[in-house]
Structures are given as C-alpha cells and as structure tokens.
Specification:
The chain is of the alpha+beta class. The chain is built from seven helices and seven strands; from the N terminus they run αααβββαβαβαββα. Helix 4 packs across helix 6.
C-alpha cells in the first residue's frame, strides 16, 4: 500500500512539472500571436531571411538597368517627360507615404507590382496594404536626407538610378511580415531583385534586377 501511494505521488509530481512547463512555454513566446498553453506549434521564423545584399551589390544591378544618377529636380522631370521613369500610384496592394518622387524605371515598377500582387495573394482581401516610403531620389534630395539624420541615406544611393524602393514593415502584423518576407525571398531567389532588411529605418530596401520577361520590350 505504501509503495503504491509513493508511485502515485511520484507520478503526480512529474505530471505537475510537465503541465507547468507547457503553460510557461505558452505564456513566454516571442510571437505576436497567442498559441495557448497546450499548443506545440513551432514558433515563427525570423522575418529577415538573412536579407543582407549590401549597397555595393545593389549598385551593380542599379547601374545595369537604371538611369545615370539623377542630380536634381530638373533632371528628374526630364526623365519623366522622356518616359524613362514611369508613375507609381496608390492601389489595392500598396500605397505611397511621403514619397517625394513617385516614379521608377519600368523594370522596378513591374517588380513593385509583382511584389504587391504576390503579397495580396498571401494575406487575402483583409490584409493591410504595403506602405512604400521611398522610390526614386535625386542626389540633392539624398544629401538633404543624410544631413537631416536619415541613417539609411547612403551618399551613393541606388535610389538615384530609379531602380529602388523602400517598403516599411513597422505597421504590419506577424502574418503580414511573414507573407512579405516570403514574397521577397522568392523573388530574390528567382534573380529578380536584391534585398536588405534595414532596422534603423524599419524597411526592406529593394533594388530591381534585369529580368527578360519584363525588359524585352523596354530594351528594344
């Protein structure tokens, strides 16, 4: 009888430890979602996918498909009039926030549309649209940003070639961040863009690369 009671006490003790560990694991999680104390779903992966294509690498793509660095507003307007830059506008999949120069070279504009399209397919009708915080910049404007304390405003920026966009991730929830990073990882793997995840200004800095399907008409 004593042995049986001892076994019951030992079993109860270990059962209490297991339940306690599961509850603690359910409470202390890095995820934005609550999984519950008995849900053993694997925790979400990092959003950055090791996106670390530095400025020098992105400049190789920008110089290959973009314009010569745009120095000032006059050169920017001339490129628009000549059709070398195309307008990007708010749509169902993304919107522009404080974008001073809302134009891109055609390849970059098509890349943005593809990002938006795939992102929308992933998040569905009720997902937040993407926020575009930068597109083309002039050298003059880039220097003003740098002097104003923008930590990501490089002196030799791909933005001045019309090839590069910044997409903010600060306003997205966990599922939307995951969806966006999945899309960027896929497009990067297909050789269509370079990506770096910036943290001082929370955004993905994305430079388009040459892609035959998109560029064959433009290059004729």
């Amino acid at each position: 009888m004593k042995i049986q009671n001892k076994r019951i006490l030992i079993s109860s003790f270990f059962l209490t430890l297991i339940i306690g560990a599961i509850i603690v694991g359910g409470i202390f999680t890095d995820s934005d979602e609550y999984y519950g104390p008995f849900d053993l779903t694997p925790r979400p992966i990092s959003y950055d996918y090791s996106f670390s294509d530095n400025n020098r690498l992105q400049l190789t793509a920008a110089d290959a498909i973009g314009l010569p660095p745009i120095e000032n507003d006059a050169q920017y307007q001339q490129a628009v009039r000549m059709g070398k830059l195309v307008l990007i506008e708010d749509c169902r999949n993304y919107y522009l926030r404080n974008v001073k120069f809302p134009h891109l070279v055609p390849t970059a504009a098509k890349l943005l549309d593809e990002i938006g399209k795939r992102y929308r397919e992933n998040v569905g009708d009720f997902g937040s649209p993407l926020r575009i915080t930068s597109a083309t910049r002039t050298n003059d404007y880039q220097q003003r940003l740098s002097r104003g304390g923008n930590a990501n405003a490089s002196r030799n920026s791909c933005h001045t070639r019309g090839t590069t966009i910044d997409i903010s991730y600060s306003q997205l929830n966990h599922k939307e961040k995951e969806a966006l990073s999945d899309v960027l990882a896929a497009l990067r793997g297909e050789g269509r863009c370079y990506v770096i995840r910036e943290t001082k200004q929370p955004c993905y800095h994305i430079t388009a690369r040459w892609y035959m399907k998109w560029d064959e008409d433009y290059l004729k």
